[in-house]
């Protein structure tokens, strides 16, 4: 626990907070991209410890939260078929579709299984040649190499009964979309450390230059986040717009080149719809044409399915940093982790789930 404790040290936290107070001279709005960072901020009360002049807003960095409703409905349609074994990470099973979720499909007799790696799904396909095995490939650049490897492995083995339902999104186009919005309030970014572990931070440099916004690659422990905030505020106060790396123990500027090459071999950049945000050009990944036989949307002919988001859920505004979870009329009432209306209350990285889990809504609404 020695090295973990270093990143949760109260004395170091006090030192960073003292320095943060000394450099902060005016109000600033900073967005943390990653839902994991959001949970760390709320769990540790970081947003309540920092100077009042600094407002943290929560971004669209939760892959479960931004998976569009129509993609969930496609998953439900596939999983309901008797010849299918549908595999997924556990947090997708409770994500509500238009009428039900994957847990309901499972209770109705669907063969829905939780796996811990897409390669587990490849193994299931290998062991069940009479079934069609589908993996729900959701995530940002962080999970793309694993999903690409699963497709590549199935392709090399000649497995004909394996496919993936792709819902991959990319961080930089979403950042640009938010910064381009007339409603944008973000003046600085905490970039997601695990995404940058794969992709590096080279692609953030043009964004910082174009929109005059400092970006700091940041980890997930309390000291990481406090230091990341300090670095962003220091840049803002000096009027500097560039990319810096707080997460230097893990992230390199060039990222992981072999992982990037694998992603590019299997996937291509495509337009992608984000839940609550609409379609963002060139913001997602889809399988290359040579891997069409492993694309579940093509295999099951579901490419034309379109559905509308429920109007009572404001998760799209939460994901854009325009609203806090407790500003939703349904939050903690009609919408709870047991009865979620939207994805941000379901996911382990969702902002609404974080506020609910740590009773933040009770304090804010008191």
Characteristics:
11 strands, alpha/beta, Rossmann fold
Describe this entry's structure for a reader.
The chain folds into 3 domains: 2-64 and 171-245, Rossmann fold, CATH 3.40.50; 66-170 and 256-299, Rossmann fold, CATH 3.40.50; 315-365, no CATH class. The protein has 18 helices and 11 strands. It has helices at residues 2-6, 10-23, 35-43, 46-49, 63-66, 69-79, 102-107, 118-127, 144-157, 171-180, 193-199, 205-211, 222-238, 257-266, 296-299, 315-319, 351-357, 360-365; strands at 28-34, 54-61, 84-88, 111-114, 132-139, 162-169, 188-192, 215-218, 243-245, 267-274, 278-287. The longest helix has 17 residues, at 222-238. The strands form 2 sheets. A 6-stranded mixed beta sheet has the order 4-3-5-6-11-10, with helices on both faces. The protein is globular and about 65 Å long. Strand 8, helix 13 (222-238) and strand 9 form a beta-alpha-beta unit. It starts with a helix and ends with a helix. By secondary structure, the protein is of the alpha/beta class. Helices cover 41% and strands 19% of the residues.
């Amino acid at each position: 626990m020695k090295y973990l404790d270093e990143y949760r040290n109260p004395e170091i936290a006090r030192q960073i907070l003292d320095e943060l107070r000394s450099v902060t001279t005016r109000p600033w709005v900073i967005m943390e991209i990653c839902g994991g960072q959001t949970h760390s901020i709320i769990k540790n009360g970081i947003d309540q410890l920092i100077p009042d002049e600094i407002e943290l807003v929560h971004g669209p960095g939760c892959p479960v939260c931004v998976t569009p409703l129509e993609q969930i409905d496609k998953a439900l349609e596939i999983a309901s078929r008797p010849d299918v074994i549908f595999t997924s990470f556990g947090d997708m099973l409770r994500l509500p579709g238009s009428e039900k979720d994957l847990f309901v499909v499972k209770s109705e007799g669907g063969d829905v299984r939780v796996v811990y790696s897409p390669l587990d799904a490849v193994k299931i396909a290998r062991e069940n040649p009479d079934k069609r095995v589908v993996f729900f490939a959701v995530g940002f650049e962080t999970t793309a190499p694993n999903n690409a490897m699963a497709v590549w492995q199935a392709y090399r083995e000649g497995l004909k009964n394996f496919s993936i339902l792709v819902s991959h999104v990319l961080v930089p186009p979403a950042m640009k979309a938010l910064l381009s919005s007339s409603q944008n309030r973000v003046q600085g970014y905490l970039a997601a450390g695990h995404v940058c572990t794969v992709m590096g931070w080279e692609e953030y440099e043009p964004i910082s230059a174009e929109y005059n916004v400092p970006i700091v690659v940041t980890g997930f422990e309390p000291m990481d986040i406090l230091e990341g905030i300090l670095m962003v505020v220091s840049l803002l106060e000096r009027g500097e717009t560039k990319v810096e790396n707080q997460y230097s123990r893990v992230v390199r500027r060039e990222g992981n080149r072999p992982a990037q090459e694998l992603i590019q071999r299997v996937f291509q950049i495509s337009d992608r719809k984000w839940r609550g945000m609409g379609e963002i050009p060139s913001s997602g990944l889809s399988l290359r044409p040579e891997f069409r036989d492993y694309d579940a949307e093509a295999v099951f002919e579901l490419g034309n399915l379109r559905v509308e988001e429920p109007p009572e859920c404001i998760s799209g505004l939460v994901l854009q940093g325009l609203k806090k979870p407790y500003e939703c009329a349904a939050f903690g009432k009609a919408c709870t982790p047991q009865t979620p209306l939207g994805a941000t209350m379901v996911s382990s990285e969702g902002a609404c789930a974080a506020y609910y889990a740590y009773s933040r809504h009770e304090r804010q609404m008191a």
